[in-house]
Amino acid sequence: MTTVIDIDARATQHCETTALGVLLRHQGIDLSEPMLFGLGSGLSFIYWDGKNMGFPFLGGRVRPFDLTRNLAARLNLELLVQETTSPRRAWENVAASIDAGHPVGLQLDSYHLDYFGSKVHFGGHVVAMYGYDDHNAYLVDTGQQGGAVSTSLAGLAQARAARGPMTAKHRSFTLTASRNPPRPQSQIVPAITACAGAFLNPPIANLGHRGIEKAGKLVQTWLQRTDNARRDLPQAALLMEKAGTGGALFRNLYRDFLAECTGLFDSGHLRTGHGLYSEAATLWTAAAALITEAGESGDAQCLVQAGAILSDLSRIEHEAMRALNRLGE
């Protein structure tokens, strides 16, 4: 038996916005990936270095699934989320939706997906599932992972059952548009100011502009933080640039969102924010390159330079978010 829904799979960059795009286009809502990211107030920053972590983590977006919740609220979408500890029930939830003609979003651990190029555990990965047969599940992932892809049902089950950081209990979700949804343009300012407010007023020093400032100081110690610099530093930089971030730790996506908004609104505050995030995106890529070079060469001076760039980025992004926050005045 084969059940496959006709979907529009596009080569997009970030996993959660990729899945959201598939689900929303099936509902007749077609938005660019940067617009999905921005309306979901997706931009953030975290510097995390826990006791059980092998190496520090730099994150550039809100927690997994918060973007989906934010977007659903902004566009008045019905978000149906199902979670269970039962693998059998988890499969029934997904199969029932697909059999009824509705693609489903899944949160899972990408490590177990057959097609995934990088075998690293990440429990916050999101895909859209649009079909299955007796052996395989048919998914849409990022363009980097192949777009419309397939994985074995056994691998999918393992990915959904995985436990660890950022995992969910076999989480699946669907989105349904209301009869009279708000115009996306009407939700841009609230989405931007919500994102700016959270960034400007982080509850702890690891987050937002304070987190970037902290990262600028701590990144200079990274050669002492690891016993394998050639592995850990380039890997950290790779995650900033290539791991579904769209480049520059999601700043490219937010820059492009703001650029799209400048075509819809005549606002000096918006133009200021866009210009500063254009500058920030370039600097994040430069910082990642220096971190890679430090790992490959062992040259601590590269990390000093990266730290200086991060210090500048804290100031630049703080200034950008202050300007964007004024859109709500």
TrEMBL record:
Domain Butirosin biosynthesis protein H N-terminal residue range list: 14-142
DUF4872 domain ranges (all copies): 155-324
InterPro entries linked: BtrH_N (IPR026935), DUF4872 (IPR032369)
Name used for this protein in its record: Lantibiotic ABC transporter
Organism taxonomic ancestry: Bacteria, Bacillati, Actinomycetota, Actinomycetes, Streptosporangiales
